[in-house]
Amino acid sequence: MFYLLDLFGTLAFAISGVLTAMNKKMDPFGVFVIAFVTAVGGGTLRDVLIGRTPVGWMLDLNYVYTIIASFVIAVLFRKKLEKLRKSLFLFDTIGLGVFTLIGLEKGLETNLHPTICIALGTMTACFGGVIRDILCNEIPVIFRKEVYATVCILGGTVFFVLLQLNVPESIVYLLTPAVMIFVRLLVVYYKLSLPSLEREQ
Amino acid sequence: MFYLLDLFGTLAFAISGVLTAMNKKMDPFGVFVIAFVTAVGGGTLRDVLIGRTPVGWMLDLNYVYTIIASFVIAVLFRKKLEKLRKSLFLFDTIGLGVFTLIGLEKGLETNLHPTICIALGTMTACFGGVIRDILCNEIPVIFRKEVYATVCILGGTVFFVLLQLNVPESIVYLLTPAVMIFVRLLVVYYKLSLPSLEREQ
Amino acid sequence: MFYLLDLFGTLAFAISGVLTAMNKKMDPFGVFVIAFVTAVGGGTLRDVLIGRTPVGWMLDLNYVYTIIASFVIAVLFRKKLEKLRKSLFLFDTIGLGVFTLIGLEKGLETNLHPTICIALGTMTACFGGVIRDILCNEIPVIFRKEVYATVCILGGTVFFVLLQLNVPESIVYLLTPAVMIFVRLLVVYYKLSLPSLEREQ
């Protein structure tokens, strides 16, 4: 179940990569690489920084197949995807929750401090998009307006608070992404965003 | 012989880095770093992702010396290099073949699936250029028009098909880059490129 | 003492990150990530390339706390920091010396060749800024005009020459950053910079 959600998240992230790359007039190889990096970039960075190598997607081909499928779907149905925006957004939010959870888990397995685990969760969920934006020569969108990362940090904090309160693990694993998904939907519904920090005024 | 070709490829990639960086009005340090990264960036990324550390060029100084030599040659003879474009292109194509082969080999040594090995071969040959373009603040050229990466993927496929057919290894190691070099020359000669995937039309 | 200087350098680098990011109209999360990456990016890259994982800042939370403190200070006092430029520049120069020294040391511990150690020292001191500039979508400033990296290479060379001359280690560890700080102040005072290498003239 969890694994399936992970592949769902991978699918959503890969599709968002395809759509971004096609706007940049890239050729099919470029579009595929961007899709790949958007989907597994965050987890890859996490694995490299904690020393889990070969990195995850090299050992489980289902990720590669999922991304290839996303690529084909997104290229064939690019016009229709515009209309499916809401479903895509839901997938993406599920991905956000699941990826954060996976990052938190790997941090715990490596015996790292909760603060670092939260950083790893956020990295897993957000840095695929950061690498995508860098490859597309743009300032990463999550540095400018999305509350994306804030939701991950919140999720990580909820996770450790619940564990501290001796809430059973299975419930923690359900509640954490539930809170994240709820908050993100709320934020998008009310169009909230963090204020930008400008210098000199 | 193989090792010599590897250093040839390093030389060609480093020179292409110097020429790109000089167009961006960088200072000598910047030019050197770009040359370095173009030459060893792909292999470094590969080594980091599969966990072969310290990465290759740290353990064999010949790569460093080759890049320093390329830097000096390219800076001194920058005007004449324009005229030598064809030879440079040939070096570069040899580098492409050899680097792909090295990536395939490291993937096999790490017991990874053929699909992942092909990805590693392509990464070794292409990602030095990708990092070069990111450092120069451009959308990577191989994502937009070159058939560069496609040739690497083709080479990797040929490699595994031949192995599957029980062709002796030494012949596989000769045929793979030969096919790649032949296809690339053909592609450039006939000015072929992949169509770009644009959204909305 | 050395450790304290390291945290001082981290503070200075993080503040420079905050100031750069605020000029780009990033939101608080973006500003924090840029501060983080500027401060620990060089050391993280070094650790990944030589295989020391989990990377340094994951195992010692003092770096994280220092960066959080820098972030808060820089955001609260952004107007006053302009006037403190000279002190900041001094911190930054101390950071440059200390970070280079740490890179040299890790290289020696990993039994790498002096040339590679000098590269690691330079990387530790300079690549945080490079990653900061890439995330801000600019060509890295040290590739264009600063003599920053040259000072690191000089420092690394001095370090190994002194070791070769059998100068006691404690003196080498004091003299190396002293020479670097002196040269950098001199360079900035006389407004020296390396000439840019342009093609075609």
From TrEMBL, chains A, B, C:
InterPro entries: Gly_transporter (IPR005115). It is found in: Cell membrane. Keywords: Cell membrane, Membrane, Transmembrane, Transmembrane helix. It holds the Pfam family Gly_transporter. The keyword Membrane applies. It is a multi-pass membrane protein. It comes from the Bacteria. The keyword Metal-binding does not apply. Residues 4-78, 90-162 form the Glycine transporter domain. The chain crosses the membrane at residues 6-22, 29-49, 55-76, 88-104, 116-135, 147-165, 171-192. Its main location: membrane. Belongs to the UPF0126 family. This is Trimeric intracellular cation channel family protein.
